[in-house]
Amino acid sequence: MEKSALPQVVVTRRPPGKAVEMLGEVASVWAFPKNRVISSSELADRARRADGLYCMLTDRIDRRFLENAPRLRAISQMAVGVDNIDLAAATARGIPVGNTPDVLTETTADTAFGLLIAAARRFREGYEEVVDGSWGEWDPMGLVGQDISGTTLGIVGLGRIGQAIARRAVGFGMRILYTKRSRDHQVEKELGVEYRTLSELLGEADHVVVVTSLHAGTHHLIDREALAMMKPTATLVNAARGPVVDTEALVEALTDRTIGAAGLDVTDPEPIPADHPLVALPNCFIVPHIGSASVRTRIRMAERAAQNLVAALENRKMPYCANPEVYDIGP
Ligand code: GLV
Ligand code: GLV
């Protein structure tokens, strides 16, 4: 094919692995050359002539952006969560939106479990003692936290990642509760998990892990009222998206010990400023959105996102599509 006849693809940030090469086999590719988030004005400008967009969760793909990208016929994001993209607007335009489930499930579940252990067992305070020189004599009740093994775990959102967390919890001898929009009898049987309503789960669980996707129905799902239902010794882990938890309510709950601790991979806002009250709390352990950040997983995500875009540009169905209904209604 002539170079000019090839579809034009915009890549908003250079992905790892062979992703760009894969795209280059079917398209003429422009990739933002700097290792930072592209400005929305430059992105809008580049997208005006693009047939395909390869983007990151830090890019805002809203209705206005789509209106200014008349040729766009496929979007592929290197992430499982696509809450930064106006899915309804994309679907209305007949644009499939690709995402990267499965490849990041185990890595993200590892992170969530790590945060649970770190927060419940007070790793941050322990680490701070070591580095500031206040590690004194061994103390029978020094830095005692809450157990993980043998306790009850509540999982909010039993998707792929939630199920992977449940499998880890089985190994820790935990009782596992879950809540989800619809009950999943198959998974209940397979994993031995028990369904609860959200408020039942919050009251009964020793620890709560949130792994639901962010949408209008889950925005501030964990609010002041929800936190008040949790046990005062409980740990809350957020490995979903920051806005699923009401930050102001969480600061209060951790300060007055309505709950015991929090382990966060995501925050609202994100990044969270270093002088934010949440960051100062000794019972809050935060890592900067690294849920899927292993070398192997990030390469797999990048290449899966490339596969999705290549498929769409070749007029095939995206193997992993966040708005599959786009294929039912057509463009
Ligand atoms: C990361 O948060 C993702 O959605 O892949
Ligand atoms: C993500 O892949 C999920 O379904 O939890």
Q: Please, could you describe this protein's structure?
A:
The chain starts with 7 loop residues before the first strand and ends with a helix. The mean pLDDT is 97. The chain has 2 domains: 3-103 and 295-328, 3-Layer(aba) Sandwich (Rossmann fold), CATH 3.40.50.720; 105-286, Rossmann fold (3-Layer(aba) Sandwich), CATH 3.40.50.720. The chain has 331 residues and is of the alpha/beta class. α8 (185-191) links the parallel β7 and β8 (194-195). A 7-stranded parallel β-sheet has the order 8-7-6-9-10-11-12, with helices on both faces. The chain has helices at residues 19-24, 40-47, 63-67, 87-92, 105-120, 123-132, 160-171, 185-191, 198-204, 224-229, 247-255, 277-280, 295-313, 326-329; strands at 8-11, 28-31, 52-55, 74-77, 97-98, 152-156, 175-179, 194-195, 207-210, 235-238, 261-264, 284-286. The chain is globular, with a radius of gyration of 22 Å. 36% of the residues lie in helices and 14% in strands. Bound molecules: glyoxylic acid (2 copies). One glyoxylic acid binds at residues 80, 101, 105, 159-162, 211. One glyoxylic acid is lined by residues 57, 79-81, 104, 291-292.
